[in-house]
Amino acid sequence: MYEYSLWLYFVFYIFEYNLIPRTMNKQTTIFAIALMLMFSIGCKKSDQDAPLPDEDAIISKYLSSISSDAVRHQSGVYYKIMEPGSGDPVVYTSTVTVNYKGSLLNGVQFDDVSNKSVKFINAMQGWQIGINMLRPGGKIKLYVPSQLGYGRYVPKPEVPANSILVFDLELVSQQKAAK
Prior knowledge:
Elements: H1 2-16, H2 26-43, H3 55-65, E1 71-72, E2 78-83, E3 95-104, E4 109-119, H4 125-131, E5 139-144, E6 165-175
Antiparallel strand pairs: 1-2, 2-5, 3-4, 3-6, 5-6
């Protein structure tokens, strides 16, 4: 993070003191700085960049150990529909209201939320896949690989980076966006 703040300071300094060479216009300079910044971000290594284990095998083994009949979606999410619900399917532009419990494969629960409203397009990919299989009133159990969940992001201390997530999710309702 420190590295990015230095870049921002550098850009601010260039513009504040008008250090752009007369032969370069500001658009060219902005492009050059953006290119350098993107290159430095792309090359940055972190301890979270370690290769991920075969999460599909881990989830599959876990489901076998608990005798679950969850099904694998082509995305890699495993799911079990408890109740399909009824009514209209969720629309991409909808705001959905959900109840959910989130936990890790080891059973550590990190969330228990009722009546959370979220724009469907802003939901994590694992949720989008699961919610798309439901109608209002529907319930699903999701086993979400890290890349379709939080990935390297750590939303809470009890959720490590690159965690496989388990959600018990109920689609309470959807509010379709006005045209």
